[in-house]
Amino acid sequence: MDICQIATKVISGEQALAAFRVYRTERIFILCDSFLTQSGAIDLLSRQIAPTNQVQVFDDVVPDPNLSGVARAMAAAVDFQPTVLVAFGGGAAIDTAKGLVYFASGAHAFSRPPVFVVIPTTSGTGSEMTSFAVITDAEEKRKIALIDDVMYADVAILDPQLTVSVPPAITANTGFDVLTHALEAYVAKGATDFTDAMACKAVELALEYLPRCYHYGANLKAREAMSNASNMAGVAFNLGGLGMVHSMAHQLGGMYHVPHGLACALALPAGIAYNSRDEKAAAKYADLTYKLSLAPRSLPVPQAVCLLQGVLKALMSDMAMPQRIGELPKGPDRKSYVQTIPAMAAHAMEDRCLPGNPRPVDERTFEDLFASLY
Where is the Alcohol dehydrogenase iron-type/glycerol dehydrogenase GldA domain (predicted)? Predict the structure, then answer.
């Protein structure tokens, strides 16, 4: 039996932010990072908020949010007692808000649960559609996935105008987060016809429009397409699952603060190569290349998988992305990296994304795969 549940209302397209005008007499608590307040980006949202509302902005969100950051946000939100809670920003802001919702719900900290609105300013996480949040354990230098239906957003607002100023490097990284979500969901154990449709369309849109977003950032059509791709990939992995690539990416992010999308891009080739040794997974990778007209159906499965790998590698090259750990501008030296492999492998085995992987992975295999990334 398969269950397909999409809990979040999605408002998308140009001028989507205007939907915020529906709130007239609310207590609105906005979480974002200081860059969005200092750069004035938050003004795009503020202009849509009627002056009859009470508004508080919490802009102390930091990259790789940890428990102390979530606790600070939660304390401020509980003190304000909002009727509308807004996550405005990228993955860090959304994960911080979700962590807040998760812990506040368990503690019954709000007199009544606020309406939860997520407004992404990047196209990557798809988190506006999921019951997932990723929080960093600063002491153990790893990322931990929280999964609970209470973290579903009530409303997601996708306005491409919010993403046009995203720098090329971040556009590339977040775009590969989209691709990784879709590709992992497509071969995951929990994949269904519903998730396959979402994942396939997400890959199609990303391959076509991500390069345009990278090279021509002000292209609203391309930005809107990537917002949609991110959203659909989020639906796909939320329902179908993820796998070993995310289990590895979480460790690279936790240990070395590699941006999540870039960590996914670095681990994705190894994940596809490993999983494609499973006949069913290889057939699905190949099927994707056929459906997207990347390869004719006459091309044998192994060659089709290789072609998919080549397409992804070419895309990374086109966007000047590092393709190995050793190419990271501020990455670890080889000796330091090797010393951390056992810990990363052990933590990857505990990662909550791993059970969805189509092929079993043991700790020694993870060690070999991490070593191959350098």
Answer: 8-160
